[in-house]
From TrEMBL:
<dbReference type="GO" id="GO:0006352">
    <property type="term" value="P:DNA-templated transcription initiation"/>
</dbReference>
<dbReference type="GO" id="GO:0003677">
    <property type="term" value="F:DNA binding"/>
</dbReference>
<keyword id="KW-0238">DNA-binding</keyword>
<dbReference type="InterPro" id="IPR007630">
    <property type="entry name" value="RNA_pol_sigma70_r4"/>
</dbReference>
<dbReference type="InterPro" id="IPR014284">
    <property type="entry name" value="RNA_pol_sigma-70_dom"/>
</dbReference>
<dbReference type="InterPro" id="IPR013325">
    <property type="entry name" value="RNA_pol_sigma_r2"/>
</dbReference>
<dbReference type="Pfam" id="PF04545">
    <property type="entry name" value="Sigma70_r4"/>
</dbReference>
<comment type="similarity">
    <text>Belongs to the sigma-70 factor family. ECF subfamily.</text>
</comment>
<keyword id="KW-0805">Transcription regulation</keyword>
<dbReference type="InterPro" id="IPR000838">
    <property type="entry name" value="RNA_pol_sigma70_ECF_CS"/>
</dbReference>
<feature type="domain" description="RNA polymerase sigma-70 region 2">
    <location>
        <begin position="14"/>
        <end position="80"/>
    </location>
</feature>
<dbReference type="InterPro" id="IPR036388">
    <property type="entry name" value="WH-like_DNA-bd_sf"/>
</dbReference>
<dbReference type="InterPro" id="IPR007627">
    <property type="entry name" value="RNA_pol_sigma70_r2"/>
</dbReference>
<keyword id="KW-0731">Sigma factor</keyword>
<dbReference type="GO" id="GO:0016987">
    <property type="term" value="F:sigma factor activity"/>
</dbReference>
<protein>
    <recommendedName>
        <fullName>RNA polymerase sigma factor</fullName>
    </recommendedName>
</protein>
<dbReference type="Pfam" id="PF04542">
    <property type="entry name" value="Sigma70_r2"/>
</dbReference>
Length: 170
């Protein structure tokens, strides 16, 4: 791939995805400048990637969102971001790093906002409150089959939203 072809491919990626990547990074970082830096770094990595012109549009989009997510996780975990002093360990021994879990919760909460209210309601009741299908059906005054159907299609929608964000693979 020639330099001009790489530039054109990168310009196309930027034009199609930069705004949405920035919004995604902003939701994760809550800092516009950091979000902009993360998007620039992700596009720089796309430029350096030998597979730049060989990916399909959905693959390129998923790859970019994954890069943004990983860059945010790396920034969040970095000692400089937490203003740690080198050589001093403030964390108790045996305490696990839960930063990935926290980021995953942010991503899932954001993705849940994209599914319908009915689907979100049954997913939250079943998975966050630990309630049974029968309990959910009784509260919502709908048949148990409807609750099962809403759970099935709600989780399916949630999975698609997460795939679009590059969090999970298809």
């Amino acid at each position: 791939m020639t330099t001009s072809q790489r530039e054109a491919a990168l310009q196309g990626l930027h034009d199609r995805h930069a705004a949405e990547l920035w919004r995604f990074a902003l939701r994760l970082t809550r800092d516009p400048q950091v979000a902009e830096d993360v998007v620039q770094e992700s596009l720089l990595r796309a430029w350096r990637d030998p597979a730049l012109g060989t990916r399909t549009e959905p693959q390129a989009r998923a790859w970019l969102f994954t890069v943004v997510r990983n860059l945010v996780v790396d920034r969040w975990r970095s000692a400089a971001n937490r203003h740690e002093v080198a050589g001093i360990d403030f964390v108790e021994a045996g305490v696990a790093d839960r930063s990935g879990e926290v980021l995953d919760r942010w991503l899932i909460a954001d993705a849940l906002g994209s599914v319908s209210r009915e689907h979100r309601q049954v997913i939250a009741a079943a998975y966050y409150e630990g309630r049974t299908v029968a309990e959910i059906a009784a509260e919502l005054r709908v048949p148990e089959g409807t609750v099962k159907s809403r759970l099935h299609y709600g989780l399916r929608s949630l999975r698609l939203v997460l795939q679009e964000k590059g969090v999970t693979s298809p």
